[in-house]
Amino acid sequence: MSVHVLLAFVLAAVAVVVVVRWVANLTGLPAAAMLPIIGVGYALLPGPNITLEPDIVLTFVLPPLLYSAALDSSLLGIRRNLRTVVSLSVFLVLLTALVIGLGFAWFVAGATLAAGIAVGAAVAPPDPVAALAVGRKAGLPPRLVTLIQGEGLLNDATALTILSVAVAAAVDGGFSAPAALGQFVIAAVGGVAVGVLVAFAVRLLSRPLSGDPLIANAVSLSVPFGAYLLGEQIHVSGVLAVVVAGLIVGHHTPRSASGAGRLQTSAVWRLVDFLLEGFVFLLIGQQLPAVVRGLAKYEPSTIVVAVAITVGVVLLLRPLWLLLTQSLPRSLHTWLGSDRSGKGDAEADDGAPLTGREVVALSWSGTRGVISLAAIFTLPLVTADGTPFPDRDLLLFCTFVVVLVTLVGQGLTFGPLVRALGLRANENDKARLRNEARAASVEAALVALDDLEAQEHDDIHVHQIETMRAQLRARLARYRGRVALLRKSDPARLPVSPLYEAALHVRRTALDAQREELLRWRDSGRLPDEGLRILERELDHEEHLLPDRPVQR
């Protein structure tokens, strides 16, 4: 494929991703489910195509996606739900790989246990991108969002480690459970250690470099690749290193990064996620013809049995595992890590067993995606003695079917399921908590001004302090009024304050008028473009503080 053809292909892919995102915003359909369907349709047409290169995906695509997700995750929330997160991301992944491996060894003609475990490891880890994209729109409660995020961050490391062990066994012709377990433990512990080391290095660099947002962004974009390469070079889990580094860096970013750096870094990572996820889901669909061509040598019955085992275990084992683990006695829940410290209600709820409706929703959130395909495409073509890798084409097809069934089937139905279950985040409580925190921060600022006034005696400083104090008191009164309104209103929906809506309308009108006047100055030659961009940036930051929703008039 020539450079010009590749560039045209990339531009066309960007156009498709943008249009699909626009359609998804209008219709509520998940873009992650629509893009693979479009990719399949394109792959069936004549013309150039792009093959999914596993090494490129694992090295250049997976680290930034995982790191971005880790930055947006809650380290404290994952720690409070650690039992459930570990249960899903480690034990369920191990069990899924083992059950599929045994199913292949017992029921698929000619299949080996190692080959079955390999495909089981590839399809075991859910990709949370589609589920979270739909779940957030449907108002999924924060606890379930945390569980899906935490599982999606940690299960990839588990699955890829199991896959490497299974592939080594298939290539060498033997499988040793103790050796496999030892390799898994070393990879996991080493990956965590590398992640902590990288996060510590980033924290050391953050403060001296935080004054320049561009430098901060350059460092942020480099961290996932550095963590992954370091982990892989010393033969531990690079994926887990990326996740751990992202969780720790994201937890400490509010203290170590500047405000301008955080705004710019957040915008950059949103763009990276948008483009990478769009390209990857398109590429998933385009692999179908190549995968189907490799099935000619198999009996139809063999293909059906292999697909049935793989899809059946993926869809059925997850709800069974959740029902089993959540029905354990309360004493065992506590022993495994649930809240027992008498903390606040929110934290206690995080540690409590899942309800029946939460189990149903979490059971249907296990969409598979690019990780599964990238993992299974890393299977070698031949074994150590030069013979073809056992059932490689069949394993590829089984993985592809699982990805399509879960990504399209579960992706399109997850939102309606969440709404039918009545699992909606309590927006009233979330808004009340935010406004209480705002009020507390303003009160802390007022105390700081009192301390500053006690130290300063210059009249100019006193005047400045009084001006700031008046602004803070007005803001505090507004936050307290909002809290009082939220406490008295219906918990199921956010109240609309006519005064608040009117204030938003006034502020937006004033900002629009300021922008128009600046443009007139620029167009008349009185203000250079450099000055326009500086002043526009000031107005943009002010507008960024306003709620991201239309004013209700």
From TrEMBL:
- Presence of the UniProt keyword Transmembrane in the record: yes
Instruction: Give me the segments passing through the membrane.
Output: 6-24, 31-50, 56-78, 85-107, 113-133, 153-171, 177-202, 236-253, 274-296, 302-324, 359-382, 394-414
Question: A GO molecular function for this record?
Answer: sodium:proton antiporter activity
**Gene3D superfamilies in the cross-refs:** 6.10.140.1330
The GO biological-process annotations, alphabetized, read as: regulation of intracellular pH; sodium ion import across plasma membrane
According to the entry, every stretch annotated as the Cation/H+ exchanger transmembrane domain falls at 15-419
Q: Which UniProt keywords apply?
A: Antiport, Cell membrane, Ion transport, Membrane, Sodium, Sodium transport, Transmembrane, Transmembrane helix, Transport
Q: In terms of one coarse class, where is the protein primarily found?
A: membrane
Localization terms from the record: Cell membrane
PANTHER family found in the cross-reference section: SODIUM/HYDROGEN EXCHANGER, SODIUM_HYDROGEN EXCHANGER 7
Per the record, the similarity remark reads: Belongs to the monovalent cation:proton antiporter 1 (CPA1) transporter (TC 2.A.36) family.
Query: Under what name is this protein listed?
Result: Na+/H+ antiporter
Lineage in the entry?
A: Bacteria, Bacillati, Actinomycetota, Actinomycetes, Micromonosporales
